[in-house]
Amino acid sequence: MYLIGLTGGIASGKSTVARRLYQHGAVVIDADELARKVVQPGTPVLAKIAEEFGEGVLHADGSLDRGALAAVVFHDPEALARLNAITHPAVRELALRCIAEAGAADPDAIVVYDVPLLAEGGTADSFDFVIVTDAPRKTQLARLVDERGLDPVQAAARIDAQIDRESRNALADAVIDTDGRMAATMSQVDALWPTIVAARDAKRSA
């Protein structure tokens, strides 16, 4: 198995790059999807979140009110740290299980773990290869406002809650510039794929 860490700032095109890697044959594991699974109603993680932040972060049906929780944590670094301490270990455990299952199903698999907070988590060394999607702050802001409906203050807060571009890019084996058209982003992934396959093959034969 060849394990790739795919990361980047919010609204920097990770999903587009992950989708293209999948089209080339990679197995893609999405940390955001795993994060949604670990906070389903009835899970220990959701119970801990409600205990820590109050019943106000839940909908009437007992599911997580993401908007209410975001309003609590995104302007409060200490609260965000408390939330991360609850959710990150559960997501990491589920991710490791999914990665192991992918490797067991196909020892030659190229597995991509799409994880927004790879740099913040200090786990770059656990991957064979790291890809970073990169876009300027103004592009991230525009995407969050125009495509996701956030107001500019919310958008800026979400960007600022993440590590800076320079620190993230410094971890990369490859940086994909996502500031242009989608076709340009995909072309960069297409050009990178043979390098990934060759690296996988070299690891396999080592």
UniProtKB/TrEMBL annotation:
Keyword match ATP-binding: yes
Pfam families: CoaE
Binding, ATP: A11, S12, G13, K14, S15, T16
Assigned EC number: 2.7.1.24
Coarse class of the protein's main subcellular location: cytoplasm
Cellular localisation: Cytoplasm
Alphabetic keyword roster: ATP-binding, Coenzyme A biosynthesis, Cytoplasm, Kinase, Nucleotide-binding, Transferase
Entry's Gene Ontology molecular function annotations: ATP binding; dephospho-CoA kinase activity
A GO CC term assigned to this protein in UniProt: cytoplasm
Example GO biological process: coenzyme A biosynthetic process
Protein's pathway: Cofactor biosynthesis; coenzyme A biosynthesis; CoA from (R)-pantothenate: step 5/5
Catalysis: reaction(s): 3'-dephospho-CoA + ATP = ADP + CoA + H(+)
Family to which the UniProt record says this protein belongs: Belongs to the CoaE family.
Job of this protein: Catalyzes the phosphorylation of the 3'-hydroxyl group of dephosphocoenzyme A to form coenzyme A.
Protein name per its UniProtKB record: Dephospho-CoA kinase
Organism whose genome encodes this protein: Agromyces seonyuensis
Taxonomy of the source species: Bacteria, Bacillati, Actinomycetota, Actinomycetes, Micrococcales
Gene that encodes the chain: coaE
